[in-house]
Specification:
The chain is an alpha+beta fold and 280 residues long. It has six helices and 16 strands.
């Protein structure tokens, strides 16, 4: 079942109109949520990121679009599927039809869908995971690139490139040839006791798990966190590279070109991330 503006409909009937602005102009935002142990992980962070993104895109936020209302609508959608399961939930918000580039209205519609996932907590998979740079297209640095909009052509093309060349993931670059993020999450580099992740000013996604890990790392005495630009040359000098997103948590990179990596820091952080998720 899919929740469309508060009405639960069968997936086969949850079609969008030809004049949907998300389809025609990319005029839409989304949040990908993890629902495990009967709760939405880091729901407050997701909600406030969505509200901030809607304001940036000049969307009209309905009076009833409170954190409690949306949480109840997500829960109602999940209850129809299977209350006791773990889910990947997608909440999409788009501007209502009308106009061309200039919208006829800033009012919005929304949908909520969900699909089951296996684990109730974050698990660091001990698997071979090779990455490469995707250099065919670049992400522009700036505020709009930090939003979870549905303008994801570079991610789609990068995913096709990874599949065609037997890579598990690719790292995206901005117009300054700085490392930004992976195709499906933020990226962190470990060198000694220093962990680096690109700053939002470089154009990386304002990720929820990125925010959580920065806070966690700051509390670990023997580690320090830097939000600073990353050159591609730093990748092969790193001790560890890991990718983060709200569904998988932390994914350790095994290999980039000729360099192979360890994952001791990732093991430490995933356990602390699970504690934070359960207490949030």
């Amino acid at each position: 079942m899919v929740n469309v503006n508060g009405t639960l409909v069968a997936e086969a009937e949850a079609n969008i109109a030809y004049n949907n602005r998300g389809l025609n102009y990319g005029d839409a935002l989304f949040e990908t949520l993890r629902y495990s142990n009967n709760k939405i992980f880091f729901w407050e962070d997701h909600y406030f990121r969505l509200m901030a993104s809607m304001r940036i895109l000049r969307m009209e936020i309905p009076m009833n679009f409170t954190m409690e209302f949306l949480e109840e609508e997500i829960q109602r959608t999940i209850n129809v599927a299977d209350f006791d399961a773990n889910f990947r939930v997608k909440l999409i918000v788009w501007r209502k039809p009308g106009g061309k580039y200039t919208p006829a209205t800033n009012d919005i519609s929304y949908s909520i869908s969900c699909e089951k996932i296996a684990n109730s907590s974050y698990i660091l998979e001990e698997q071979y995971y090779e990455i490469e740079l995707f250099k065919d297209h670049f992400v522009n640095s700036g505020l709009l690139s930090t939003l979870k909009s549905n303008n994801k052509l570079i991610n789609v093309l990068g995913s096709i490139y990874a599949k065609e060349n037997d890579y598990h993931n690719c790292l995206l670059l901005n117009e300054k040839k700085q490392v930004l993020e992976a195709l499906n999450g933020n990226v962190f580099l470990v060198k000694g006791n220093i962990i680096k992740t690109p700053p939002l000013e470089d154009g990386c996604l304002n990720g929820v798990i990125r925010k959580q890990l920065i806070g966690i790392i700051k509390l670990i005495p023997h580690l320090s966190i830097e939000e600073s630009s990353i050159s591609p040359f730093e990748l092969q000098r790193a001790d560890e590279i890991f990718i983060t997103n709200v569904i998988q948590g932390i994914v350790s990179v095994s290999k980039f070109r000729k360099k192979e990596f360890e994952n001791e820091t990732a093991k430490l952080l995933v356990s602390k991330l699970n504690v934070k998720a359960e207490s949030n």
